[in-house]
Amino acid sequence: MHQSLYLCFFALLSVSLAWSVIPKPQSITTTNEYLTICKDRFEFVPTQTTPILADNINRYMATIFDQGTTTPPTKCPTTHLSIKIHLLSLDETLNSQTSEAYSITLAATGSIIQADTVFGAIHALETIAQLVDRSNGAQWVLPVATVKDAPRFAYRGFLHDSARHFLSVPTIKRLIDALSIAKMNVFHWHIVDDQSFPFVSTSLPKLSQGSYGGKASLTYTPAIVQDIIKYAKYRGVRVVPEFDTPGHVTAWGVGYPELVTPCYTGSKPNGSTGPLNPTLPGTFTALKQLWNEIAQTFPDDYVHLGGDEVSFKCWESNPDIQAFMKQKGWTDYELLEQYYEQTLLNDIISKIDKNYIVWQEVFDNGLKISPKTIVDVWKGGNWTAEVAKVTAAGFQTILSGPWYLNYISNPYSTKDACPSVEGDWCQYYVVDPQDFSGTPAQKELMIGGEGCLWGEYSNDANVETNTWPKAAAVAERLWSDKNTRDVADMSSRMTEFTCELLRRGLRAQPVTGPGYCQWQ
Questions:
Q1: How far apart are CA 263 and CA 269, in angstroms?
Q2: Is 128 exposed, middle or buried (0-12, 13-18, 19+ CB in 10 A)?
Q3: How far is residue 520's CA from residue 452's CA, in Å, rounded to a whole number?
């Protein structure tokens, strides 16, 4: 490695280049000076290294110089550009408390990345990768610049649903790659639902009989899950799994029919099933086994418990449930739901050393939940009132309701949100999760949000293009300063970002109208 040699070749441009980064950093200062770069005269030099940092240095060298179909630059400097990397901590723990702050200095007299953790350094490497300008094909350049950056919100997630259509491992990894590029740090993995249970459980092995036709090739084995978790961590992305109960459990009943409630028409079962059966001790025995396994499998400090859309109709029809209700002296089936949730939280989840996220119904139904609970507000119609109510009760909140990207819309039907720009992405960009009535203390309890792409109409063929680049509008809103709201500027950068995704071999649809990208 070349030691402390810095590029002395730089020049003044007659016209400034448009340095484009998504999400926009908190502070970036550039000049008309630039640094010419070539692969054999460019390096990242850590003062101390970690396995994740070493991997990312190699990966970003390839990202900057090898990805895409262009020929390498021919105008090269006479000396090396060495960018030092200094970490304040070598701890590679990634969880809800991990710092992602970083700074960059790019200059002919010396260049350095400084970051609290390796995960901040990954973001710095990504910013540098996006700052490379290749518009003059023979000469690639970086700006002389200073960047000081950190996320506005700690939770910047995206939900992908592999329960309604199976998503292959290569597809999931490409989705994680794109999350990292956009500095989103949570992959909310909606891994099971009514339609399928593709997670292979070692404690309850018959659950995966409820996968897609029971095919072993359409499941996620323990080895696959660990591979995805490690892949995500090496890109600064947490994996938060969701196992939704007591509703959305039809697939559970394929392998374990005793866990779900048989629905009745009159005095006879009608062949359909409803929520988990909370009247049987065996239900909670199975849940204890499963959640102990989930806690061992997924290292993040949070899990998502679901808890939404629990229909009482099947419970109401079942004579065994009716008898249990009569024994308890209950007439309101909300009390049965509360009984289920409180047993789950108090007897199982409280003992696995995990904090939890729930859909907003768990809060709305008045359940006693941990003070550390994060409430996920998903109903978009009046989300501001719901967030105000949740935060007034003292709970941390994340927002997902306005960011359901699976609602495919006509780009020309959303012009009211941003009449000056093309594309439906802008309806997501103009939403700010702190735009609700509340005290400063309540605003602090809003810790971020997530885009969602539910899988009814997405599979390997289109899940990436249904997500990207529109998800970048959510990513910037959750990372950048609240006053970063120039939709025309974002439209220009969105076009560049789409092209950058394509250069890196990812799939992204055009969202800003007619145009051309040399990498498509």
A1: 6
A2: buried
A3: 26
334 is catalytic: no
In angstroms, the CA 283 to CA 252 distance is 11
Scan for tokens 């779900």, then name that residue.
260
Contact in structure between 94 and 236 (CB atoms under 8 Å) = yes
- The total of other beta-carbon atoms located within 10 Å of residue 215's CB is 11
Whether residue 386 contacts residue 379, with contact meaning beta carbons closer than 8 Å, is answered with yes
C-alpha distances out from residue 177 to 126, 290, 305, 315, 479, Å: 11, 29, 26, 43, 17
Alpha-carbon 382 to chain mean position: 23
For the beta carbon of residue 263, count every other beta carbon within 10 angstroms: 18
Per-residue pLDDT of the chain (520 residues; tens, 9 = 90+): 333 333 333 333 333 456 899 999 999 999 889 999 999 999 999 999 999 999 999 999 999 998 776 678 888 988 889 999 999 999 999 999 999 999 999 999 999 999 999 999 999 999 999 999 988 888 999 999 999 999 999 999 999 999 999 999 999 999 999 999 999 999 999 999 999 999 999 999 999 999 999 999 999 999 999 999 999 999 999 999 999 999 999 999 999 999 999 999 999 999 999 999 999 999 999 999 999 999 999 999 999 999 999 999 999 999 999 999 999 999 999 999 999 999 999 999 999 999 999 999 999 998 889 999 999 999 978 999 999 999 999 999 999 999 999 987 665 555 566 877 888 899 999 999 999 999 999 999 999 999 999 999 999 999 999 999 999 999 999 999 999 999 999 999 999 999 999 999 999 999 888 888 888 7
DSSP 332: -
Residue 188 near residue 159 (C-beta atoms within 8 A): yes
State the alpha helices, DSSP H only, in 220-376.
222-233, 252-255, 281-297, 313-317, 319-328, 333-347, 360-364
Q: Which residue has the tokens 């950056």?
A: 149
Task: Give dist(CA 202, CA 221) in Å, integer.
Answer: 9
What angle, 0 to 180 degrees and rounded to 10, lies between the N-to-C axes of helices 281-297 and 333-347? 50
Catalytic residue among 258, 309, 334, 444: 309
Contact 38, 76 (CB under 8 A): yes
Give CA torsion, residues 404, 407, 409, 411, to 10 deg. 20
In sequence order, what are the beta bridge partners of 11?
A: 34
d(CA 30, CA 18): 10
Return the C-alpha torsion angle 150, 158, 21, 118, nearest 10: 50
- Rounded Cα distance, 368 and 345, in Å: 9
